[in-house]
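explain this.
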Amino acid sequence: MKYSQPHVPILYGPQIPRRDREDTRERYSRALLTLFVPWRTVADLCDMNQTWEDAFKSGQHLISVHSRMVIENIQLLHECKKDRDDHLLQVIAEAQTENDTIDPIILPVNQDVHGEYDADDTDDLL
């Protein structure tokens, strides 16, 4: 679809997982297939005896060049957020060296004191 004016899509719902995390690879593959490959039923995307990761590998050729650029930008956003949060934690740690604890109030909203992110996700959508 061509627009006369540039548009920026805003996705509501669970965040698309990072590509480089082994523990979210299935969710990542499922998210990209459902967003960037045409489908009417789940069987159009993934066979019963197939993992979402395998389905993504075999269906990648169906994703347009423009959509691949969008996917790369999504990954870049993840990397920027992680770098920002890492820097924030470093600044906090330097500011609280004598206290030996990090105040959870000043942590990024979706990150705990161990650096783990909430996987606020609904896996059962598909």
Residues 36 and 64 are 8 Å apart (CA to CA).
